[in-house]
Amino acid sequence: MQTRAISLMTLSQNPAEGARFYQQHFGFLPTAELPWFVSLQHPDHPQFNLDLIQKDHEAAGPFLQGKRTAAVMLALVVDDVDAEAVRLQQAGLTFLMPPTAEPWGQKRLQVLGPDDVVVEVLQMTAPDQDWLKQQV
Fold it and tell me: Which stretch is the leader sequence (predicted)?
């Protein structure tokens, strides 16, 4: 299969409000806006779409219609997670996890996004060599 783009779609109570969150805090831009659907792209990754669809709309399909988004994490890799933490704290976002250095080679934080989507902001770091030896 050849794909031209990849999309993550979330079921949203309010797609327009959710889209504003991703635009304001993470730099996504709208490519389609309807009352029940918003498609976003990040200028650095034009082949990835973040779509928000009204959870009760028929376009969600019979299996998903009326359900809510659950257990979804959107991960954004950045150069400086500490700088992003300061910016996101100043913006008043709800932190689920403060900046945390992980032994597997990441420094990451998590904030709560619309419709209970967890937005993870992470920076790649050198893994802890002792931890790596224990994993084999």
Answer: none
